[in-house]
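About this split. The held-out portion is used to measure sequence recovery: a designer receives only the structure tokens and must propose an amino acid at every position. Recovery is the fraction of positions where the proposal matches the reference. Here is one held-out target exactly as it appears in the evaluation file.
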């Protein structure tokens, strides 16, 4: 018997166990268009980036989630930055059910966070969208 991976979703939105994280909301990234997909990762580090870089003033949160439908590789990362999907990042047109929250996690250093934000700003100036829908 194979065990399913643990999936994580990083955000600044507060959810409760049993809530559904659904597509159709304004994206946390890029031009903030209506998102056709929801994103998750099987690595805590990728979810930490999601929580740290999400738009909003609230604290970053990381949820343990369960997909309710099919997953596909996240083309924003796998095709452009990390061929082969070592970040184990995925997206789905189906909701994710919140199973729980990661209570304690360590974010990236302020320097590393500033480097990532500067990189995203540079991509924005070049007209490269952070989220490809």
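Reference sequence for scoring:
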């Amino acid at each position: 018997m194979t065990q399913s991976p643990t999936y994580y979703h990083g955000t600044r939105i507060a959810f409760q166990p049993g809530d559904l994280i659904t597509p159709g909301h304004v994206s946390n990234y890029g031009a903030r268009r209506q998102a056709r997909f929801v994103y998750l990762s099987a690595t805590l580090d990728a979810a930490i980036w999601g929580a740290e870089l999400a738009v909003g003033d609230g604290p970053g949160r990381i949820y343990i989630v369960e997909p309710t439908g099919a997953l596909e590789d996240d083309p924003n990362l796998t095709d452009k930055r990390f061929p082969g999907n070592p970040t184990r990042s995925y997206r789905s047109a189906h909701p994710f059910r919140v199973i729980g929250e990661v209570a304690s996690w360590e974010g990236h250093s302020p320097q590393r966070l500033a480097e990532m934000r500067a990189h995203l700003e540079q991509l924005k100036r070049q007209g490269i969208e952070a989220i490809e829908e």
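Annotator remark: The longest strand covers residues 61-67.
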